[in-house]
């Protein structure tokens, strides 16, 4: 924008921008208002919004310092809009004030364009246009909301915006890298990813099939997702077995991406070391899933997760507390394992942690383990992931009732992913 001012007068450029933005807002309002209310309830057309923007610009440039003319014009415009609203609600029983508020925003565009950077006033216009067009989308979302949805959002805001800043960042036990802040920070990050996956499943991919359920569920918990998919496959038709096996492998693929995000947040050093490994493994699991899915004839009716399973909300205080307790337990185990058994004991612990939720163990490694080398931390994280994949494979076999039609897909798919993990881990050790 500064380059344009070098060739054209600033006043001309500002006038063109104000006129263009006001016209765009007016066109958007004309479309929505005609569809919603009809021509008789409009206080003006798209030209009216354009003239409102131009009026705001003229009154602003005549008195840019004191802005008395601009404020006086705003009062007059507000009075006219208020009169229009009174007539509209008394004669036509239309009570919405969105159009009036947007008209006042249009009036304020001129000083915003004249005084603020280009990214800011473009952001204002884009926000107005998007919120105008998304009215019906917001209505649909509100209709889908469960009765306690706002309470769930309040819980997340409470644990992240109220509890976390209040916690001290001092060691609870001398010599152990464990503070109330670090415990709750890990809980907030994992809860945030879980809550995001829940929102995607609930409002974006609500009627999704089994494959999308595996993808979204893997962001939250691959173990829980694989267990649910395995239970459902127990009674699913034979021709859907490949789809269920593929969904389980997609959950594993998303698990690698989830840990990639967590590593990036908590340890840049480890991230720079292991991100190629995690990307390769995520890609490998996805390729194996695609191979299994493409080999079988696809069902015309994709399976859809049960309503109860779709709407289960992972963001609960008891879940957060359980995670926090597990984080403390693994922190103490890691600390004393290093003292009494060294890095060899830590390697063993990494495999044992795979029998449960490995996220607390890995996050504890990321946040510091008493001077352990970054290479050892990265290797232990990879070993824990391999152990967890083996456990997930066992869960898939057990909860599916050991169905023969699914067993070959699980053993072949998970076996390929585990083998690739082992190869990369050996390569990681010997580079």
Overview of this protein structure:
With 431 residues, this protein is mainly alpha-helical. It has two domains: 2-133, no CATH class; 148-430, no CATH class. The chain contains 19 helices and no strands. Helix 2 (10-36) runs parallel beside helix 7 (118-133). It is elongated. It starts with a helix and ends with a helix. Mean pLDDT is 79; it is low at 297-305 and 307-311.
User: How many beta-strand segments?
Assistant: 0
Query: Could you say how many structural domains there are in total?
Result: 2
Largest sheet at a glance?
Answer: none
Percent helix: over 70%
Strand content: under 5%
Label the structural class.
mainly alpha
- Overall mean pLDDT: 79
Write the element-wise H/E pattern from the N-terminal end onward. HHHHHHHHHHHHHHHHHHH
Distance between the termini: 51 Å
Low-confidence runs (pLDDT<50, min 5 residues)? 297-305, 307-311
| Number of helical regions | 19
Radius of gyration computed on alpha carbons: 29 Å
Shape: elongated
């Amino acid at each position: 924008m500064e380059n344009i001012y070098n060739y054209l007068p600033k006043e001309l450029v500002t006038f063109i921008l104000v006129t263009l933005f006001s016209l765009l807002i007016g066109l958007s309002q004309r479309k929505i208002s005609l569809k919603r209310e009809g021509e008789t309830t409009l206080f003006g057309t798209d030209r009216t919004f354009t003239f409102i923007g131009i009026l705001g610009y003229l009154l602003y440039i005549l008195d840019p310092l004191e802005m008395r003319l601009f404020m006086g014009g705003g009062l007059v415009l507000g009075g006219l809009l208020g009169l229009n609203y009174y007539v509209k609600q008394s004669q036509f029983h239309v009570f919405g004030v969105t159009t009036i508020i947007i008209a006042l925003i249009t009036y304020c565009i001129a000083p915003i364009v004249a005084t603020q950077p280009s990214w800011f006033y473009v952001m204002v216009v884009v926000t107005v246009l998007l919120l105008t067009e998304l009215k019906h989308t917001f209505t649909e979302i509100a209709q889908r909301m469960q009765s306690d949805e706002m309470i769930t959002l309040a819980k997340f805001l409470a644990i992240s915006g109220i509890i976390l800043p209040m916690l001290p960042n001092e060691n609870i036990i001398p010599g152990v890298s464990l503070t109330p802040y670090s415990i709750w920070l890990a809980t907030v990050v994992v809860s945030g990813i879980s809550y995001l996956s829940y929102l995607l499943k609930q409002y974006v991919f609500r009627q999704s099939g089994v494959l999308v359920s595996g993808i979204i569920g893997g962001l939250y918990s691959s173990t829980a997702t694989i267990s649910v998919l395995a239970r459902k496959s127990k009674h699913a038709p034979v021709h859907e077995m490949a789809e269920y096996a593929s969904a389980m492998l997609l959950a594993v693929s998303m698990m690698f991406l989830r840990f990639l995000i967590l590593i990036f947040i908590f340890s840049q050093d480890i991230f720079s070391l292991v991100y190629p490994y995690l990307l390769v493994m995520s890609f490998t699991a996805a390729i194996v899933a695609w191979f299994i899915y493409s080999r079988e004839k696809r069902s015309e009716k994709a399976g859809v997760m049960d309503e109860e399973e779709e709407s289960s909300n992972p963001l609960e205080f008891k879940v957060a507390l359980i995670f926090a307790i597990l984080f403390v337990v693994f922190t103490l185990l890691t600390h004393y394992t290093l003292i009494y058994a060294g890095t060899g004991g830590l390697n063993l612990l990494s495999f044992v942690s795979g029998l449960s939720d490995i996220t607390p163990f890995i996050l504890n490694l990321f946040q510091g383990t008493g001077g352990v080398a970054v290479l050892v931390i990265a290797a232990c994280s990879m070993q824990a992931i391999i152990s967890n994949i083996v456990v997930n494979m066992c869960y898939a076999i057990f909860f599916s009732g050991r169905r023969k039609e699914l067993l070959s897909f699980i053993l072949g798919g998970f076996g390929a992913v585990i083998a690739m993990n082992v190869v990369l881990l050996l390569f990681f050790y010997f580079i």
